Amino acid sequence: MISAAPFRDRVVHHALCNLIEPIFEKSFIFDSYANRLGKGNHKAIDRAQHFARRFKYVLTCDIRKYFPSIDHNILLHVVARAVLSRPKQLPHSPGDCFVAPCATRNDMNIMWLVEKILQSGRGVLQEEYEMAYFKGDDLFAANRPRGLPIGNLTSQFWANCYLNPFDHFVKRNLRCKGYVRYVDDFLLFSNDKSELNAWRERIIAETAKYRLTLHEGKCQPRSVNEGIPFLGFILFPDHRRLKKQKGIAFQRKYKTMRRAVREGKIAFDELRASVQGWVNHVRYANTWHLRLSILSVIH
Asked: Which residues form the domain of 282?
């Protein structure tokens, strides 16, 4: 469910992101691709295919119900460690509360605003959250504030920040040389399948520290030659395909919009813009015949 804040609040969200994005940018790893200038999903796909040519195996991972599961206390801890001027007083565990007696007034004002925005979205995605208990939890764990409204700019940015410490765990602790993450979808590459299996167990344990669970059935090592499902595409070392369900979904949308044009509910230019946007996206895969069949109708 997409839920966006009112216009006035969105202006505040944009201003806040302008303040804290440069701070986080210094700490992001190179291969984190969401909500960053000069990155994006197509760059992530290019990088993943680059690794598919270098390595034999891949571990595909994604988080179960990511936006509804993001824990507010842990997110505050992650943001505070980046924003506050002198974070030496901060706790080392992501589940702890933050205390920053050495922070400047401006730092604390930023954190106050971050907390207020988080509180305003509390419970928005509660119906989509699948309750999970983690080591050390009591019955009150069900009442922990969680969830980010998907339509907000701050939510998109914080969703990337939330797993920034995890990125460093993968690079520093696992020493993974082939790693790509786009929000909650991430890939680890290796020439050793047993190494990927070992990493899988450590990843499950590490993401639990952030109160997140993986789709463990999907999180299995495979040969890169089998195809890598990633961001709506199937990637191979030498070519790409669009996921079949993505093509079917757009064809249904396209038929619905054509009917709306005939009935005068939307303008033809709106249909053209929608198709052109989709074509610009799927041209990153081997979709020539699919694109041709759709474009031939509107031109």
From this structure: 241-298
